[in-house]
Design brief:
The longest helix is centred in the middle third of the chain and has 148 residues. The termini are far apart. The protein is rod-shaped, with a radius of gyration of 66 Å. Helices cover 94% and strands 0% of the residues. α1 packs antiparallel against α2. 0% of the residues are buried. By secondary structure, it is mostly helical. It has two helices and no strands.
Length: 175
Amino acid sequence: MATPKQMWEQQQSQMQRVKNSGVISSNVNVSQLIKDDQEEEMARSALALFRAKEEEIERKKMEVRDKVQSYMGRVEEATRRLADIREELDALIDPMRKEVAILRKKIDNVNRELKPLGQSCQKKEREYKEALEAFNDKNKEKAQLVSKLMELVSESERLRMKKLEELSKNIETLR
């Protein structure tokens, strides 16, 4: 794109060519040519100004696009970092959840196993108490029987002793 100075120089060189060509025949033609050249120069300068503005707009558009791309890059990077952090947090939480779930399942299994064992234990405790009571009753009965036996044996010995004494007296009396 031509700068205003370059455009002015081009116009000056065109004017020189027109003068040197010998086309100028009268003052009217010269004034008409000058007027046409001025209009052409104004059109060129307006076009140049328009092109300069278009280039400026395009340049600013590129700057904004670059800034937006840079910002989008930072946003994407931040999004990736947040996703990584979220994954790390999930990784920290998941093992604990898995361990808790495993332990809860184990506890449930143990509870299921404990229930029949507890019932069996209670049943056996009842049987033990009944057997212990029966044992104690039989032990008492045995003690009573032993006591009665001892009484009977004592009574029998006493009677036998008495008989022996009587017999002994009878033998002495017979002598």
